[in-house]
Amino acid sequence: MSRRLAAPPAGTEDPGAPVEAAGVSFLRPAVILTGAFIASRLVGLARDIAIGAQFGTSLDNDLYVAAFRLPDTIFSLLAGGALGSALIPVFARTLARDRRAALWRLASAVGSLIVLACGLAALALVVFAPWLVVVVFPGFTGAAAERLVVLVRILALSPVLFALGEVTRRALNTLDHFLAPALGLVLYNAAILTAALTVARGEAGVTGLAVGAVCGAGLYLLIQLPSLISRGVRYTPRLGLHDAAVRDIARLMGPRLIGQGVVHLNVLLTTSIASVLPEGRVAALNYAWLVMMLPLGIFGMSIGDAIFPTFANLAAQGRAQALAWTSSRMLGLVLFLTVPSAVLLAIAGRPFVAALLERNAFTAESTAITVAALSWYALGLPAHAALEILTRSFFALYDTRTPVVAGALAMVSYVALALLLVGRLEHVALAMALSAVTTVEAVVLFFLLRRRLPSLGRTDLPASLLRTVLAAAVLVSVLVLVAFLGWLDPPPVTTPLATLARRLGHALAVAGLGVLVYGLVAWLLGAPELAQLRARLPGGRDSAAQSD
Questions:
Q1: C-beta atoms surrounding 461 within 10 Å
Q2: Angstrom distance (rounded) from CA 38 to CA 31
Q3: pLDDT in tens, 350-370
Q4: Among candidate residues 336, 303, 310, 316, the one with its CA nearest the CA of residue 21
Q5: Looking at residue 2, what is its pLDDT?
Q6: Would you say 157 and 122 are in contact if contact means Cβ atoms under 8 Å apart?
Q7: Per-residue CA distances from 504 to 98, 418, 501 (Å)
Q8: What three-state secondary structure class fits 202?
Q9: Whole-model pTM over 0.70
Q10: Confidence class of residue 29 from pLDDT cuts 50, 70 and 90?
Q11: What b/e sequence results for 158-169 when a residue is b if at least 16 CB atoms lie within 10 Å of its CB, and e otherwise?
Q12: Is there a contact between 281 and 63 (Cβ–Cβ < 8 Å)?
């Protein structure tokens, strides 16, 4: 059940001061998470480049991508967004009562329950994999289906390891420690990269990649343990079924689990639909999504993760106006950063895909089908980033039901629209449908949140959005002109090293042009987000405040 946040008495709360205070506390975790995500994505890019060069958009890569779907669904249902959205508010409330020992007991109980649930689900996945593969991925038959079963069974262990790592991550985040969990994601990608460069090049093939992914999940958990031990963690083997805090977490997870179930059912259906399309479409969609995840992770997910504890604390203190203003500032910031990113990827995505992936088995045809999906995925990037802020605002208010219902309706609409269009547009229909429904979902959630936090409608967000749209419109005009002149075409292939250098330089030049044009127009329009970003750089005003 949602809990309405009471506003403070009139005249007792200055919206500006809480926002600035939140900005200061938000600085350090934001920098850590953003830096770690960039490091993770750099390693992840190296991983994707290595996998793409080895397998391209082949059947092997399709099988590798599809194999992740079932284990990922287990993790996401039992220990992903659902668990995270429930743990942070309850952990924060427990710690606010100055009960660190109670926090460790609660974390022990939740960890035990999650490992038990994920372990049983993983065991069922191992046993029933042959039947599940036939039902969920009908496009893979015969020897391909048998290979897919092997991959699924190997990956079944990863959700158990990631689940326990997620509990430790949320406990450490509550204690304002972000570095070790963030580095865990770097190690996860590094393990797969190592497998791609070694065992996957031999007879093991994509089976070696699956083993690398499981090792990476283990490293994600292990790197967090020293930080827990140094903070006096005491694991107590218990389930805590009668603890009020455990029941609160379960209650908060309930609606979110339904939403996650719908979301990941549609992820499975997306892969299922793509499995019956021509070879390589599953891999192309995956690569397009990974490229889109670069700006989404840096500008959306990392900021959302970093600001969530602040949201939870403001809500726990009953500071409705501060929460509204902080949410507004973060919405303006993520949209300011992701709208130009979306424009660049939608219009000028080809240079980036060619520079990052096009080599060896990843051919020009692989680039073409990947860019076709990326252009449409990119149009939904601002909405995906906005959801990172909007949903966390609801979760901080102990309202998991509203975003879940909106998300469930959006995902059902997504599948219906995708099925309607896929016959004519193939894999592009899936990207197009997702961007359309995600945008509608973000708009709906914003207006629903404004009903909970009326001050959200009295901020400077509309003016910020107008400046962002105007600056993006100028960027669109410049990129269309550049495309018309043929300057977005990747340099021709010569020697491998020269081709890589020229294409990377070309992609960086396109990105630099985009940043320059957008930044200049935003500066001329007086965008306050530029000052926000400058203040959070080393030596900026917020940095000085933090050091004090």
A1: 19
A2: 10
A3: 998 988 888 888 888 899 999
A4: 310
A5: 36
A6: yes
A7: 52, 34, 5
A8: coil
A9: yes
A10: low
A11: bbbbbbbbbbbb
A12: no
